[in-house]
Each structure stands twice: as structure tokens, then as C-alpha cells.
Amino acid sequence: RSWLDDAGKAAGFADIFVTDARLGDRSGKGLDAFLANQFEGDMAWLRDTAARRRQPAAMWDGARTAIVTVMNYGPDHDPMDNLAATAHGNISVYARGRDYHDVIKGKLKQLAGQFAARSGAAVKVFVDTAPLMEKPLAARAGAGWQGKHTNLVSRDHGSWLFLGTILTDAELTPDMPEQDHCGTCTRCLDVCPTDAFP
Asked: What is the pTM for the complete model shown?
């Protein structure tokens, strides 16, 4: 495990977490409620892939372990300052650099390849483009918890996180899940400039 942590940091990830490749009933129930309320809007693929989203094994039946990677993309300035400058548009922080899918996937492939060569295990990498519920997996792995704004929140990195997942047929000892620390706080909802949350 120490090799995995070291290799992950060398690849550019802030942290590496491990969990078994399965999700609890809560994730499936949350998906059902989301779809029942038609929150997917025009994103029909969310409904079309619902059965595959329920469990990582539906993506790959050999999956035994999920290795969750975290990369912090938090800016070095207060992004809320941009909201005060109403004379021009504002681009979301996550979209200001190279496409994170490409950046993370390259790093994940590097790490997964090294892990496969070292362990002999089969691996598959995922970065937000397959029907894999990465945030619930990351929470189960101990990377953080899902805040009321639905993003993963980490005590170490806040909610400015890019997630990547390596599914493997190797059996690794899972990390402990992180508990939800939001309590009654609603600051993430209250500050949303578009009032996107009911």
C-alpha cells in the first residue's frame, strides 16, 4: 500500500484511497430518487445507463477493488472575487486549464500500468466519462463525503477535487469511509450564484 501512495503522489495525485468495488444501497436509492424527480433534465444518458451505474461490477464483473485518486484544482485566489466583477463573464475554475479528463486519464493510465506490472492484476481506468458513480465510491474509500451541493468534500482539500478511479481485480485492504461533517451547514447552497439547488 505504501508503494501505491508513493506512486500516486509521483504521478501528481494529492491522495490515493482504496475501497472494495461495490456501492451500498444508499447510492442506488439516491440514483432512483434523482431519476424519479427527473433531475437529469436533457441528460438522457443518465437514465439510459442507470442499471450500469448501480455497481462497479456492472461496468466490469472482474472488479474487486476501487483505487480512488484525488487531485486538488483549488485556485490560489478567492474565486468568489470573480463574481463581484459583473462586467464580464466568469468561467468555472475547473474549466480554466486543460481538459481534466485528459490530464487525469493520462496520470491514471501511468499509475494503473505501474500497478498492473507490479501486481499482475488487471486494471481499468475511469475519469467521469463512464457510468461509474465516482463520488459515492470516493466517499466509501475515505476521500471525503458528499456535501449538500453534491460535490465530494475533503477535510484536507475542500471541494476543489478531480476524481479518478482505477478498478482492479486485485483484492486490497479498504480504507475507512469518512463521516459527513456538514451537519446543518448550508453555506455551499447559499453561496451558489445561480441558485441551482432547491
From this structure: 0.90
pLDDT in tens, the chain (198 residues): 899 999 999 999 999 999 999 998 889 899 999 999 999 999 999 999 998 888 999 989 999 999 999 999 888 888 778 777 778 777 888 888 888 899 999 999 999 999 999 999 999 999 988 889 999 999 999 999 999 998 999 999 989 999 999 999 999 999 999 999 999 999 989 888 788 876
Quick check: is 104 in a domain? yes
Number of domains in the chain: 1
Is 33 among the domain residues?
yes
Q: Which residues contact 134 (CB under 8 A, 6 or more apart)?
A: 68, 126, 128, 163, 164, 165
The parent domain of residue 90 ranges over 2-190
For residue 195, is it within any domain?
A: no
- 190 catalytic? Reply is no
Active site residue: 5, 20, 128, 175, which one? 128
CB-CB contact of 156 with 70 (8 Å): no
Contact between 109 and 13 (Cβ < 8 Å)? no
Q: Is residue 97 part of a domain?
A: yes
